[in-house]
Amino acid sequence: MNTGELNQEQDLPVAERIAWLISRFMNQALTPAEREELDDWVGASDENLLVFERLTSNAGAMLDWHERLDKEKALKRIKTMAGIKQPAPRSIFRRLWPYGVAACILIFCFVYFLPRFPGREGHAGLSAVRPGTNKAVLTLPGGRTIILGATAGRLARLDNLEIFGQDGELYYKGMGTGSSQHTLSVPRGGYYRVLLSDGTRVWLNAESSLSFPAVFSPGTREVRLRGQAYFDVARASSSLFRVIVEGPQEAAGKVEVLGTRFVINAYAGDGPPMVTLLEGSVKISNGADSSMLSPGQQALVDSSISMRNADTEAETAWKNGSFLFREASIESIAAQIARWYDVEIDYKGGVTYHFNATISRNEPLPRLLYLLEGTEIVSFALEGKKLIIRPRTASR
Fold first, then answer.
1. CA dist 31 → 16, 36, 62, 240 (Å)
2. Model's pTM, two decimal places?
3. Position 362 confidence tier, pLDDT thresholds 50, 70, 90
């Protein structure tokens, strides 16, 4: 199928074909050949991808509008929703006009030609599910909290200490006391960084928290972590940098370094805490046992400490703005989806397939699920804030 710029004689047949394929996609009825054809069209241009995402993520809205509007108004609304305007001669909108036609045809495919599709319980609600953003809560001594977001500037002043937020990063200026503990908590659907007083920078993933002194005391640099964080530790010959990793037990492990870069993954329910070293060296201990890590190694901290080679690209993908799944189970993928898109997971079981995919964390959830459903192994549906995961072959 020609996916390039179309002339007016070609517009309607191609638009009909794309509308039909997208309709079958929404009804989970694509054959493998049709799936390949749709994939080719979606990947042929940014405009095609944009139209596909906007149509599939708002399918439920199409039906709702049709129920309460006449056909003429519904067609106007669906054009607006898809980002299609009346084309001006030789403008970019002329190239997008065929897909406006496809959008118009698509609403009739949904309403008149297809059986009731699973969008109302499935993908229709996904348009309200957004990727994570820069947001966190800073808890100060005494319990006062500050909501952090994209707003830049001074957030608070504590005696001679000023607290700032800028481009998703928390930082301090001035003098404070080493016993003054602050806690940065990142909720589901959030992501934030903090620049500590010694120059160490910490990236916190969703559903994570870091407790730290506003200003480190001489000879002492210690923080406490729950969840997942990437550390770029500033070198200081006078003191080690120590991370107390909190887990199901009060303290699941301790990491000691001078200057180095590493990742800690200590989410509750995800198995033993893991420490992945990227650069430098670290000492891992859990009370009775201790080990030294070399770059490219990963330590699993349980009742004992075990070592293995790390997939450093996969372990740092979240910090670099991507999902990177390599032979990943649906359970591990679901855990990441839950944290980043702030949804609850209802896994029905029966999916033993391991997935491989790479996608930006800025993509809307429908796009990620589209890639996973391309395996024809798994299907998804959304009910409110609950994402239901089933084997593709299971009855719906």
1. 18, 9, 24, 59
2. 0.70
3. very high
